[in-house]
Amino acid sequence: MITLLTTLEAGSDLLKVVERTGLISSVLRSREELEQVSDASVLLINWPYILREDFISRQRVVLNVHNSLLPRYRGRHAFTWAILNGETQLGFSLHEVVAEVDAGAVLAQVAFSLGFDEDVNDAFSRGAVLLREWLPSVLIEWASGRLVAQPQDETCSSLFRRRHAQDNFLVSFDRAEKVRDFVRAVAPPYTQGAMCHTATGEILHFCSSEVVDDAASTGAPGCILKVDEQGLFVACAQGVVRLVPVEAGLLAGLQAGDSLVVAAL
Fold first, then answer.
1. Do the beta carbons of residue 106 and residue 70 sit within 8 Å?
2. What domains are defined for the chain?
């Protein structure tokens, strides 16, 4: 039987399907409850806290569901970092928990595709559906002893830090594709959106973006080439990107030739 550590709300769809496996003996939702757990098989789902080594060592096994295809994108905000880097394959890994973050042997993985016209909210929405379908059967396989843990390939590993609100400021208008992926990775309502300043100091928040096939348009990176009801058409060092602001009313104060200012690295 499994002791589940989770911050999922009682009655959530994922919690329901996991409990229907008949494998969950108890559900704990706070760190204060961990002292009572010993010699148990523990499963973490949506558990944001790092476990102490002494807790891990006194359990039979501790498993975690991580939202990346390990060994890549260990750490926090895995979907966001993957989209920022232009990944088109996202997924989940069921792995053993060790002292090093997300570095334990992998028992099972599942992947899904994400298009460039989809954002981080689509990733979470589609990922939630996939997880409800995949995780119960994987847990049953694990309980029956049919899964073999495979060590992660450290030569392919990557670890990413927690993101903060200030990380949503655009830092470059280098490649149009990179700007598009940045906006997709932090699109509202997951965050307030990608941000940059106007030349007059106003902050713009963007909800979506796309690369524009407009080879004839040129300008310095960050220069607004056109403003219309579709948003801002902005020059990049390579290509042109259309940015759609969260507040359409702010478009009225902008015109072709104005510049957008990115944050300093």
1. yes
2. 2-160 (3.40.50.170), 165-261 (3.10.25.10)
